[in-house]
Amino acid sequence: MEAAQTYGRKKNATAVAYVKRGKSGQGMIRINGHPLQLLEPEILRFKVYEAILIVGEDKFAGLDIRVRVKGGGQTSQVYAIRQAIAKGIVAFYQKFVDEASKKEIKDIIVAYDRSLLVADPRRCEPKKFGGPGARARFQKSYR
Fold first, then answer.
1. Are 98 and 105 in contact (CB under 8 A)?
2. Is the Cβ–Cβ distance between 10 and 89 less than 8 Å?
3. Which of 75, 78, 96, 123 is least surrounded, with the fewest CB atoms within 10 Å of its CB?
4. How far apart (Å, rounded) are the C-alpha atoms in residues 15 and 82?
C-alpha cells in the first residue's frame, strides 16, 4: 500500500497527516474524521486550502489525506494542519512518484510560503519571579 506519514507543528499544536492513494479516485481530505469543508473557524479554513490550491488540485486528485490534530488553539491547529498536508504531499511524491515532480512541488510551496514546509521554532517563554510575566516586572514604589 502506498502511504506516507508526516507531521506539522505550530506552538503546542501537532498535526499528523496520513497520505495514501485513494480507492475512490477523487481525493478526500479529513481532519479528525470530519471533512475539510466543516473545519472551523471558516476564515482560517482558507489557510488550509492554500496548501492545496497553490500546488494544484490535480496533484491531490487520487490521494486520500487523513489528519489527526491535537494541542494548541484554533489558529495554531490550522497552521499545523496546513504544514502537515504540504509536507505529506511532498513526501508522497518523493516516495511513490518521481524526484522531479517532488522538487517542482517543493519549489512552488517554498516560493509561496516557507512555513508550509519548515516548522516555526518559537515557543512561549516561561514566567520568572518578580513580575507578572516573562519580561514584565512589578511596578516599583518607594513609599
1. no
2. no
3. 123
4. 9
